[in-house]
């Protein structure tokens, strides 16, 4: 039975790629066939069975820790508790609410400074989990903008960061607003890794802050739009424009309603994309109700 060793903050898919190189398998698929693992190409932060099954396969009896530290699973705890997320994976439910509204690419990201440090410290580069968080643009360790690798359309084409063609990759521009946003996402991710209940607490506080005085549809819509006016005034255009297509789309006919997307029930959706919760928490992050949760986690850490 193969033994897998993950490096600190290494994504589980990266561990597979390194093992293939270490054992000189001719291709990624040949290793997958050898260990009887079916893994189509996973997007880095999507909630998908491929990442979950990979974590189970490389874990040595401790798959939950590997899953939380070796993937972006914990950020989905904003959407649902673990048992619901597991059910969604098993039943292959749609977990991509309004994914088409997201403007940023969902390809693998890397930091050139981390690549050099990893090669120096462990002899090879690897994909870092926290570089793959939804909407993140900067490396928390070095403070520099991340590079986005060109789309590798199948698992077979996935390579380690040191082999990515830099001429075909793109680096995010430096932006203090996007850096602050990235730090915020990383902080929430660390909190959710440590405590599953934090996600539910934050969302409950959001609903309390953004309460609706009436259940009538017209008044709910009016309240949502009032909140959206406030959000768009108080959140940086850099952040909103990077996250959502609406803010860079010319002549958009239908206004984006982040409040409804995150907090109002829709029977067709079982798991909501965490980006919609993140942007609302980011907007209201200085509210006392949210600070009580965030500060408690910080103290406990």
- Strand elements, count: 3
Computed Rg: 20 Å
Q: Span between N and C termini?
A: 36 Å
Low-confidence stretches: none
Number of domains: 2
Q: What oligomeric state best describes the polypeptide chains here?
A: single chain
Strand content: under 5%
Helix content: 40-55%
Mean pLDDT: 87
Total helical segments: 13
Shape: globular
Largest sheet: 3 strands, antiparallel
Structural class comes to mainly alpha
Order of helices and strands: HHHHHEHEEHHHHHHH
Report strand order across the widest sheet: 1-2-3
Defining traits:
301 residues; mainly alpha; three-stranded antiparallel sheet; globular
Report on the architecture of this protein.
It is a single chain. The chain has helices at 12-22, 28-34, 49-58, 63-69, 82-90, 112-122, 176-194, 197-209, 217-234, 237-243, 258-263, 274-283, 288-300; strands at residues 109-110, 147-148, 170-171. The protein is mainly alpha-helical and 301 residues long. The chain folds into two domains: 12-171, no CATH class; 189-300, no CATH class. Helix 1 packs across helix 3, helix 3 (49-58) packs across helix 4 and helix 8 packs antiparallel against helix 13 (288-300). It starts with 11 loop residues before the first helix and ends with a helix.
